[in-house]
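Standup notes
- HV: blocked on the assembly model, inputs below
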Amino acid sequence: MADLPHEDRSGELHPAILLVDMDSFFASVEVRDDPTLRGKAVLVGGDGGRGVVASCTYEARKFGIHSAMPMVTAKRLCPDAIVLPGKISRYAEVSRELKEILLDHSPLVEPLGLDEAFVDVTGATSLLGSPLTIARSIERRIHDDLRLNCGIGVGPSKLVAKLASRDAKPTINAGKIKPGPGVFVVLQDEVREYLNQFPVRALYGVGPATAKTLGRLGIEHVKELAEMAPDVLAIHVGHHHAATLIGLARGEDPRVVVADVASKSIGHEETYATDIVVREELEGRLRRLSLSVANALRSADRRGRTISIKVKYSDFSMVSRAHTMVSGIDDPEAILAVGTALLGTLEIDQGVRLLGVSTSNLEDSSTPVQLQLDVGSNSTEDLKAQAAWLQLERATLDDAVDEIRARFGHNILGAASMLERTGLVIPEQRSQPFGPPAVDSDSEES
Amino acid sequence: MKFRSERDSLVEALATTSRAVSTRLAMPVLSGVLVQVEGNQLTATGTDGDLSIRVTLEVIGIEDGTAVIPARLATDITKSLEPGAVTVEANNEQVEISAARSQFSLRSYPSLEFPSVSITNEITAHVPAGVLADGLRQVVRASSNDDARPLLTGVLLTAVTGTVRLVATDSYRLALRDLDGAAGVVGDEDILVPARALSELQRLINPGDEGTVGVTTTPSEITFHVGAVAISTRLIAGTYPDYRQLIPESYPNALHLGKETLVAALRRVRLLVKDNTTPVRLSMRSGGVDLKVTSQEVGEGSESVDGDYQGEDLTIAFNPAYLIDGIEAVAGDEVIIESSDATRPATIRSAEADNYRYLLMPVRVS
């Protein structure tokens, strides 16, 4: 819409919100770090049977590959593609540099994952110029300092900024990469018309179920939704939801940019090459996950009060279960005890393709801990009560293990169950982020 | 069924029985109170399947019969009527409540669906009401309300040298009290009574009361008779943790303090506690104790309380609410806090009476 070089009306935006989205972030970092990859189809993601593409270069997109596509499909579309397992710690490092650049323009930076962030520049305009000027400055800094590209959407709300960022990015047309404008601005008086073109699914809060309900009412596009009478829609989705949906369709998005909240959860999940149907095996996986989550919590000096597990079945249906403790835990055995209790409430007969353990309701590890009398919690059948006990009993042990690992190396000490052919491997939260590597079928048992 | 009753006594009967009624159950009939009239005697019964409360009341009986009336609603309506006579009449699926110029017609539940609640009238032991009330006040609050730990939601009744001991713990603290004159309540087998039933019993008796509470125990139930009210509850099955091994045999440190002064000081510093994780630190030293609460967002407060201390200087932190609970429950004017170190249980007891002990685990602070 209005990215006219002659007339910059972006100063009229109030608030003025930017969504900075990096172009194929993981893949671009790989290409930047290894120039021999330049111009090639590069895929970052899990290469195992269940791996998916986490990020891919525009060269790969020319073959119709996109992120979240199964790796198997992607490799069929482009057999010559270079597949990389991904280095999350490296991307996190670059992400921190990105955040520094954004913070130079406004203190109100809200990251969404590693490669995107909302920036509210409303208060920065008197110092740094119009929102468009600020966006251009960010774009230039990312290009010059990080040697990476991005697309920036500018609008009066998070919803609009997010949608506009896609219009700022390069597109693939007839097998050719067409560069995008880099920055795309939607002004307040253009919002309604701009939103009208999108399918309802483009609005956040419209999931598959809501989209289906709306579809039955003949509402496919935002335009139709915006014109809907709230009372009529309320019959189908309830009053509260109806008002929210119609508001969004009319460009009313009350969400504000919240500057860097401390991370709200720490978790780890794994997708398995083949479905797991044996409970003992799944519990073994749970043990590894619990250990990696515990290590991540401890290195962040946090303890989690809520422990949740997530299970995705072979048919992609997903369930999760959670339990909240009186006080936070960061001991692997304690997390495992809660996880096992939660897992015990779920059927696994149909096969589990993904298992995740997550902790939320995080508290500082210096939070005082109410000690407990030994009233048999350690011998109880109730694993959740046992968890609280394990946490208290093992605190000193955990501290000692941390200290030894800090001095002699991460894989120096661990439970015998973590022993692999190659030696002791203590799972880490960011190892194998996109699933296990491909295994040659004949070497698996060797 | 039809009867007439004075408003206030009917309200009391309905409100008391309603306390056993749970609205969260799958069986709708259990949200009702069973009312039976025989001659001039009315019997009201409420139950949730585990806990049952029965009240008998003299009324002017007009027609014998039974009805199950919605507990909360009938109580609220009766309570709000003009003072004076109330007439209740049940027919078919309705119950009419009328008084002066008010007239209510409520849907009732089928009496046949109400579970049979047999509360025994036989009494096997008597306990002085005042002593029991005092013991319950000291002990019941230390029980757990975590349903995941069913054993700890009960209060243990156990026979010790000619009397009965009450024990409760939520694993953070443990309270025990020996009751005088309560022999015969428990035999060789310990029994575990749901704290919820004892809280209901607590509402009916007070520490100064004279008279007795009648008790009947069977292998699976216990019933308490207080005047016209009977509270019966299913016992909790299972083996209670061996509480004796939790109590240290001796302590190297002992602090003697005036109870009222200490409680008042704790209440003042507790004003800074914002959540239940903020502890109060007790620095015990020759000549007394310094109390301190530090709350990151709010600020800090400290108090000194004079007393007599024997032992090494020691700083130990406690949950202030649990600490106040234990000290308040102590009889007499002087309280003794015994301790060994900052991570092991401390004991709070009276300097005068040795029938009560409160064991409290510290809060570990880094």
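- HV (later): unblocked. Chain A has three domains: 7-188, 197-249, 265-424. Residues 439-446 of chain A have pLDDT under 50 and may be disordered.
- Next: hand off to the docking folks.
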